[in-house]
Amino acid sequence: MLCFHRKRKYICKKKTPINIPMMKNILLIALLFALPVSAQIRIHADFPGGNIQVEKMQNDTVWLKPDLRDTQGFWFYWYFAVNRAKGKSIVFKLPNDCFTRAGVAVSTDGGDNWKWEQPEAFHSRSFSYTFTSNREVRFAFAIPYTQSNWDQFTAAYRKDPNFKFSTLTKTKKGREVEMLTISQPSGTPEVKVLFTARHHACEMTANFVMEGIIEAIANDNWLKENVEFRFIPFVDKDGVEDGDQGKNRHPWDHNRDYSENSIHETTSAIKKHIPAWIEGQKNVVLDLHCPYSHSGQNDSIFFVGSKEKKMEAKQLRLSEWVKINNKSELIYDPTCFAYYGAKPWTLLGTDKERMKMATWAGKLKGNILREVLKCLMAYMASNWLRPRMHEHSDMTLQPVCATI
Ligand SMILES: [Zn+2]
Prior knowledge:
The chain is an alpha+beta fold. The chain contains twelve helices and 18 strands.
């Protein structure tokens, strides 16, 4: 017979007849009743961009938090999947600031299609979901974007003679860093325009904006003839695929890697190859980012002002152009412009700290405009779907071209 003594479990030496199959059944049944519901489901982040830490599961409630990895301080990115949960209604709880006002991004087809649900999660810091089958359901802070999305989007342009696909460099983990150059082979571009995204791995909305810009260029012959465009969609490629926050990495992140002694492969490659590509020609550099998760300026689309007054004047002109030319459903309010020094974060990385990409771009020979555009993580409308994000691009492309 089995005997238990406080924390120590032992089997009594006294031999008694035991019906082994019956005991197994009793134990299995006891275990099934003893297990919390949440222990029977699978919560994981085993896919590109995945990120989650399960802190605790109790009855039908799961406490989660973002996996910070090498990020110093708090950041808010998470993206996880749930399998084998048919018939269960589960409450997922996350820490403060882990939701946008749009609520939760949900996919029931392995991440191909997404919809915003439960905007109330922004206030309650939790959401519940009733699983109707054992199929995987994915939940994310915002709509994810990884290499597979880029591959899918660019497939239509692979045979276009104006599109040249290449590799900028390889990352520490051996991944290729994509680079796309668009120009007409017979054209004579007088201006070169560089777009970069994902200096901070978790800022996925920037890639949807980049898609829209590429679509607009593809449909504009004048642009292709007179301007040469280059796109680097994933500066922190390892972070994007591994699902890192990427922000405030230790000892510094990709957007603080433009001083001497760069430690990240992509930023080293940008510093080496982009000046050679530009060859001193007139150039514009637009670095796409996303702001904090929510509130105030972070619920808007805004530009980040330069320390240099001349450059700031150009940026403000660009901002006004966006306002005038905005034909999309998205609201652009020029008063959200982030003036240098207006907020403490606008000062970071400019003087005492390590150099940002935009500051480095300002030192490029021929640079006439460098800009950081902060694309909001989530639009306020709960039914905002992926295709609508492309409309965002009209707001950046036209004024940029007008400026140059
Ligand atoms: Zn950023």
